[in-house]
Give the backbone structure.
Amino acid sequence: MSDNDTFETKEVNLQLMSKVKTSLRISQASTSFDVEIEDLILSCVEDLYISGVIHIDVSKEIKDRLIIRAIVVYCKAHFGMSNPDTEKYVEIYDKMRIHLAMTRYRNPDPIEKVDAYVLE
């Protein structure tokens, strides 16, 4: 990854934001937590990438259910301050991250970014 590459996007696509908000039991109409959720999604993408998983462009629709699930679980693990299930979700996410890094989601060239939304 070059110094010019960044994981920040102008915005997370609405499909992914909706799935994460639903999993967190947040109303779609509420925007109170959107900044925190977007930050969590981008943090997850970066964590997956540095773990050896292909780059995921969250500004576009993601069709791959395993990638979506990993992002959702990461957000459930890290959202809010007093989640009694944090450890459980962190453990689940860690296992998913390892699985993704060892399968077809593995980035064959860590210097090049490959968009996950093209996987089907």
Remarks:
- The CA atoms of residues 13 and 61 lie 6 Å apart.
- Confidence is low (pLDDT under 50) at residues 1-9.
